[in-house]
Design brief:
Shape: globular
Radius of gyration: 22 Å
Number of domains: 3
CATH architecture of the largest domain: 2-Layer Sandwich
CATH class of the largest domain: Alpha Beta
Largest sheet: 8 strands, antiparallel
Helix content: 25-40%
CATH superfamily of the largest domain: ATP-grasp fold, B domain
Structural class: alpha+beta
Strand order of the largest sheet: 13-12-9-10-11-14-19-17
Strand content: 25-35%
Number of strands: 20
Number of helices: 15
CATH topology of the largest domain: D-amino Acid Aminotransferase, Chain A, domain 1
Length: 453
């Protein structure tokens, strides 16, 4: 096992990894920017090293500073957390080149899944179902027109290096393809430095279903069920639940087995998430995230598996502590992402927290770095807490969530707590009939009903 783990991240994910390490009795080092000097992870870690000013490019993305911090503290492994360098294959290579262990997948898988075009090719080879579209990159508008004629409209133009909805445009008809193609390429170039795009058939009312997979170096591959992540704004998830209210046990087994077999075919190592669109009873692979997910706690709640602990064990060369037959899905869990944002305009609201009270009681888990007196910095993602609620079934989980939201206090800054209080009482949430377009097209427009599938 590792002597000391350096955690190259911040916020609640850094605290999550730190807690797992403490339970495993592994000393930790937190690297941080000057803006995070008073953060909870820094306060609780065994050691901390300031690696730069608030700007991410000069701190949390400063590879040289992170490697130096590992060297001076004697760390022998690096956990990248979520975001920042977590899916940076070059960083994983550099970590290994300095004799350290990267707690994550092999760089080759980070690279292949990070490029959306290569990911589709790899997925097809692994037997995953794909959305009809181009077999690879589409270099010219003429190529796009030809593929559009074959696949049909509406058509989605997507950046190969994209994420978070950037570099993604819809062409409703053939007449709109040129505009969408040019716009997607320009946006992708500006956001990612790469204007490569590909095409997919645009699905009308899909749900976003993802499957948690995990694999060790001993040939063991296990899926841990699915998560429903369809409540999104601008392609950013706000509310997730497990299991999905849309799937039957047979469908759950089907997509879980497909994802696990594809993971095995790839020779993948560590924790990963296969993401699918689901419509009219069919699944379509869209991407694989080669890291821990923000919403991983709800999987932990319904399976009893500590995903971070397993990540560390796998990186240390140990086998999974369970088999597929050991996994049972019990109860229901929901996660609300609480952001420091205005609940109506969604503008960021950094500032000092003068009153903080986390919800508690049976079945309640809060992953957060907030404390009374903490100043939320304006330099990073607006996520400040994750409220995770567990119940014996979905109705009990929703009732418990409603109670927990009512007692959660973050003052005086505006947060999305009020939005979640409205969401939990929406008819489409109560009956589980929402899809990925519901929040923006219906709920925020004043209609809380769902869309029949």
């Amino acid at each position: 096992m590792f002597k000391k783990i350096l955690i190259a991240n911040r916020g609640d994910v850094a605290l999550r990894v730190l807690r797992a390490c403490k339970e495993m009795q592994i000393p930790t080092v937190i690297v941080h920017s000057t803006a995070d000097a008073d953060s909870m992870p820094v306060r609780l870690a065994d050691e901390s090293v300031c690696i730069g000013p608030p700007s991410s490019s000069e701190s949390y993305l400063n590879v040289a500073a992170i490697i130096t911090a590992a060297g001076i503290t004697g760390a022998d492994a690096v956990h990248p957390g979520v975001g920042f360098l977590a899916e940076n294959a070059d960083f994983a290579d550099i970590v290994a080149a300095h004799g350290l262990t990267f707690i994550g997948p092999e760089p080759r898988h980070i690279r292949s899944m990070g490029d959306k075009v290569e990911a589709k090719i790899t997925a097809a080879e692994a037997g995953l179902p794909l959305v009809p579209g181009s077999p690879g990159a589409v270099p010219t508008l003429a190529d796009a027109r030809r593929i559009g004629a074959e696949v049909g409209y509406p058509l989605l133009v997507k950046a190969a290096s994209g994420g978070g909805g950037r570099g993604m445009k819809v062409a409703e008809t053939a007449d709109r393809l040129a505009e969408a193609f040019s716009s997607a390429r320009s946006e992708a170039k500006a956001a990612f430095g790469d204007d490569t795009v590909y095409l997919e058939r645009y699905l009308g009312q899909p749900r976003h279903i993802e499957v948690q997979v995990i694999a060790d170096s001993h040939g063991n591959v296990v899926h841990l069920g699915e998560r429903e992540c369809s409540i999104q704004r601008r392609h950013q998830k706000l509310f997730e639940e497990a299991p999905s209210p849309a799937l039957s046990p047979e469908q759950r087994q089907e997509i879980g087995t497909i994802a696990a077999e594809a993971t095995r075919h790839m020779g993948y190592l560590g924790v990963g998430t296969m993401e699918f669109l689901y419509e009219n009873g069919a699944f379509f692979f869209i991407e694989m995230n080669t890291r821990l997910q923000v919403e991983h706690p709800i999987t932990e709640e319904i399976t009893g598996v500590d995903l971070v602990r397993e990540q560390v064990r796998i990186a240390a060369g140990m086998p999974l502590s369970f088999t597929q037959e050991d996994i049972t899905f019990t109860g229901h869990a929901i996660e609300c992402r609480i952001n420091a944002e205005h609940p109506e305009t969604f503008m960021p609201t950094p500032g000092k927290v003068t009153a903080f009270h986390a919800a508690g009681g049976p079945g309640i888990r809060v992953d957060s770095c907030l404390y009374t007196g903490y100043s939320i910095p304006p330099f990073y993602d607006s996520l400040i807490a994750k409220l995770i609620v567990y119940g014996d079934d979905r109705d009990k989980c929703l009732a418990r969530l409603r109670r927990a939201l009512a007692e959660f206090i973050v003052e005086p800054i505006p947060t999305t707590l009020g939005l979640h209080e409205r969401l939990v009482d929406a008819e489409a949430v109560k009956d589980g009939s929402y899809n990925i377009r519901w929040l923006e097209e219906k709920f925020l427009a004043g209609d809380d009903s769902g869309t029949a599938e």
